[in-house]
């Protein structure tokens, strides 16, 4: 029978073995934990490698895609305008010019008695011509002032419009649509590659039904003496019908460098150079003015808006009218039928001399636009 000392020794040995097993198990668990950590890191690295390894090849692809996107889109600088305020400003300026002209006429009349007899007649002729121009200018101002209430009404209509943002405007592709008029339908195609900013304006306005219920306020049939050029257009796009209206923004000029130069012209990219706008062309009207070095007037540009003209016969004009598209053949036929019916003077215009046709006025038979919209 073991003694007490032997039993205590056996217990100590058993406890030592238990401690040794615990330490061994702890070391094994630690090794497993480290191994698991390494495995997690390895998996994470593998996942990271899977995600990032293709990024190198993709980066150039992304750049190429962005470059391609940018090449197919433009940024447009749409300006701000207030047709009614602009008209009042123009009227005030013209009144001042006529007042100065009247002062010069009065001074010239005072000088007539002091002039040598042989110089009086030419001076009196100049005075008479200047007085007629002043009278004509005052008549035009009077007519313009009558249009101000219509422009004020248009300002209320314009409040519902939202100017295009001007970013990421497509510069490729075409859109078709129809101008439904009382004279017949005029099918058209707009081409973004020719004038993306102006096409964007017209797409925006058509979506807002801006042209619906309006009329074409101007028609021309002005043939040059040589019979080789002229101005043959129907102008529309002003809801006020005054020729002064439009939305509260302007579109940048987009010169039609693709048009053929007129005979004798060599550089159609210069705004002062004439080009041929073929029959069927749809272009944007504007109020641009060329700089005048003699007076120091810098001129104006980028004034196009909603007004557009439809060319019914080859027309010669300076190369500063943005071309947004063309009519279809049937639409061109409708335009030519409108032109055959003739032109009458606009309100305030002097009556033509007997036997002389009116070459710039409004359609003899009103041309009303019921709808102008793009195909769905």
Task: Give the arrangement of secondary structure elements.
Blueprint: H1 4-52, H2 55-71, E1 73-74, E2 79-80, H3 83-111, H4 117-158, E3 169-170, E4 174-181, E5 184-191, H5 196-207, E6 214-215, E7 218-220, E8 222-223, E9 230-231, E10 233-236, E11 249-250, E12 274-277, E13 281-284, E14 308-311, E15 315-318, E16 323-327, H6 329-340, E17 343-344, E18 360-363, E19 368-374
Provide a brief overview of the structure.
GO terms for molecular function: peptidyl-prolyl cis-trans isomerase activity. The chain has helices spanning 4-52, 55-71, 83-111, 117-158, 196-207, 329-340, and strands spanning 73-74, 79-80, 169-170, 174-181, 184-191, 214-215, 218-220, 222-223, 230-231, 233-236, 249-250, 274-277, 281-284, 308-311, 315-318, 323-327, 343-344, 360-363, 368-374.
